[in-house]
Write a structure and sequence with these properties.
about 180 residues; mainly alpha; Serine Threonine Protein Phosphatase 5, Tetratricopeptide repeat; 9 helices; about 0% strand; globular; disordered C terminus
Length: about 180
C-alpha cells in the first residue's frame, strides 16, 4: 500500500525508497534473500540520487546489503559494503552514535562467520562501549550486545578473560521489592 502511494511521486523520489525498506527487511527476516537484493539496490540508487553517495540513508541501505551478502556467504562483498557504510556513518553521526554501533556489530559478526574471532573481539567491544555511552548501561540494546564480546575470548582459548554475560545481565532485570 505505501509503496503504491509512493509510486505516485515517481520512482526516484525519496518517499519511494523509504516505503521500500520495511517490506524488504521483512523479506530478509524470512530468509527471502533473492527477492530482497534488487529492492535494496533500488533503494540505494534512489538515496544516492537524492542525497549523494555519502548520506546516512544510503549508508543504512549499504549496511543492509552487507548483511545480506554475509548471509549469502559473499564475504568480500559484505566486507566492502559494511566498511563503506561504517565510514559514511561515522562522519556525520560521530564515533559514538548508536547507528555506528550497529555497523560495527555487523562487521564483527562478519569476522565471526569468517572464523576470525580475534578480529571480531575488538569490534564487539567497541560496539558495546558505544551503546553503553549512547544509551546507558541498562538499555536493552546493551543487554543484547553483552554476550557477543564474551564469546570471542572463549573461542580464542581465553575463557578466564570472558566476563560472564549472566552477571552483567542481572543489571537488566527488574528489581523486585
Amino acid at each position: 500500500m505505501a509503496v503504491h502511494k509512493a509510486e505516485e511521486f515517481g520512482l526516484e523520489d525519496r518517499r519511494m525508497a523509504v516505503s521500500l525498506s520495511p517490506p524488504a527487511q521483512g523479506h530478509a527476516g524470512q530468509g527471502e534473500y533473492v527477492e530482497v537484493e534488487p529492492v535494496y539496490l533500488q533503494t540505494l540508487k534512489i538515496y544516492q540520487t537524492v542525497h549523494g553517495k555519502f548520506h546516512v540513508d544510503g549508508a543504512a541501505t549499504l549496511n543492509n546489503l552487507g548483511v545480506l551478502h554475509r548471509m549469502y556467504g559473499r564475504y568480500a562483498q559484505a566486507e566492502a559494503l559494511l566498511t563503506r557504510a561504517l565510514t559514511i556513518k561515522e562522519k556525520p553521526l560521530g564515533l559514538d552514535h548508536r547507528d555506528v554501533a550497529l555497523s560495527v556489530m555487523n562487521l564483527a559478526q562478519l569476522r565471526v562467520v569468517q572464523g576470525q574471532p580475534e578480529k571480531a573481539e575488538p569490534l564487539y567491544r567497541r560496539a558495546l562501549a558505544i551503546r553503553e555511552r549512547a544509551l546507558g548501561p541498562s538499555h536493552p540494546e546493551v543487554a543484547k550486545t553483552l554476550e557477543k564480546p564474551c564469546q570471542c575470548p572463549r573461542k580464542l582459548g581465553r575463557a578466564d578473560e570472558a566476563v560472564s554475560p549472566e552477571l552483567r545481565a542481572k543489571n537488566f532485570r527488574p528489581k523486585r521489592s
